[in-house]
Write a structure and sequence with these properties.
The structure is a single chain. Helices cover 2% and strands 50% of the residues. The protein has one helix at 47-51, and strands at 21-29, 32-43, 54-56, 61-63, 72-84, 88-107, 126-148, 155-168, 181-190, 193-202, 212-213, 216-217, 226-235, 241-248, 285-292. The strands form two sheets. Strands 1, 2, 3, 4, 5, 6, 7, 8, 9, 10, 13, 14 and 15 form a 13-stranded mixed β-sheet that branches. β9 and β10 form a beta hairpin. It is globular and about 65 Å long.
Length: 295
């Protein structure tokens, strides 16, 4: 190692796969459609997971490359019901996906047995590495809508909903799965102006959906549910130019995303510099942007 970065011989990875998708759509009424599909997926091991590493001695953690990381294969069905009309659209879909050699980044010091002899847990609090889980399963629901309330298309509502649940080959939760999330928005447009209010919602992360061993989670803490309101206004200055301004997190809520929660470490305790507050999203903030399309 040199300059805090573990050194290893770069691995040259090559892989290919045939990934077909079969599907059928039934348009049983004007504007309505029911679709069924079965697809095969393939993901090459990310380059940085195979060849990149980093050591932070002060922080007590190291990230190791994994030259033996295999490609990830997946397959599964999906069903989707949708509607499209003059006023807008809505859709809802359900899916199930089975994975072979599922790629997940893990802390080897809290995920026994460690898949590598390089996990020196006596020297580091955490040793991170991307590994292949033999199999994994993820199923979920997704929904979205967009709707105009008037013929002039001035008032518009929109929203999304995502739910997923995942388990590995031993029935343990996958830490890469986020809790239930949704968005709900309302916008009004008049001439070159538009004002919009968007509410982002998330459920709390439950203990039964967090990876753990012997009663201890592999991550430092669970996230709470939240609702965050953003207000924005847009001004179409010219045909190609647009000025946008906004107040984000209007009510200055303190919240965090499950994906940002670090692996378990005694230093991540409430009230410390490395406690939960370090991983929260920005409080109330303001944004101004100018965009121009050169078409």
């Amino acid at each position: 190692e040199q300059d805090g970065t573990p050194k290893s011989t770069p691995a040259n990875k090559e892989a290919d796969a045939f990934s077909p998708k079969f599907g059928a759509t039934w348009r049983f009424r004007p504007g309505y459609a029911l679709s069924m599909s079965y697809s095969f997926g393939f993901r090459v091991a990310p380059y940085d997971s195979v060849n990149s590493g980093f050591e932070n001695r002060n922080g007590g953690y190291v990230s190791l490359p994994n030259a033996d990381l295999k490609p990830e294969y997946s397959q599964g069905p999906e069903a989707k019901l949708e509607f499209r009309g003059d006023r807008g659209y809505w859709n809802v879909s359900a899916y199930y996906t089975h994975y072979d050699d599922f790629i997940e980044n893990q802390d080897l010091c809290s995920t026994p047995p460690a898949p590598t002899d390089h996990a020196d847990c006596s020297r580091y609090f955490s040793v991170f590495q991307s590994v292949n889980l033999p199999t994994a399963e993820i199923h979920g629901l997704e929904a979205a809508f967009g709707w105009y309330f008037d013929d002039a298309r001035r008032w518009r509502a929109r929203g999304t909903l995502t739910y997923a649940r995942g388990r590995d080959h031993e029935g343990n939760p996958l830490n890469s799965i986020d809790p239930l999330k949704g968005t709900l928005g309302l916008a009004y447009a008049q001439g070159p102006w538009e004002i919009a209010a968007d509410l982002s919602l998330a459920d709390k992360k439950r203990l039964e959906d967090a990876r753990r061993k012997g009663g201890r989670m592999y991550r430092s803490f669970l996230t709470k549910g939240y609702g965050v309101l953003d207000l924005r206004t847009h001004w179409q200055i010219t045909k190609n130019g647009r000025l946008s301004m906004g107040v984000l997190n209007v009510f200055d809520r303190k919240y965090m995303h499950w994906a940002d929660v670090p692996a378990y470490d005694p230093i991540h305790i409430a009230g410390s510099g490395s406690g939960p507050d370090r991983f929260t999203q920005p409080g109330r903030n303001y944004t101004v942007s100018l965009s121009y399309d050169f078409k």
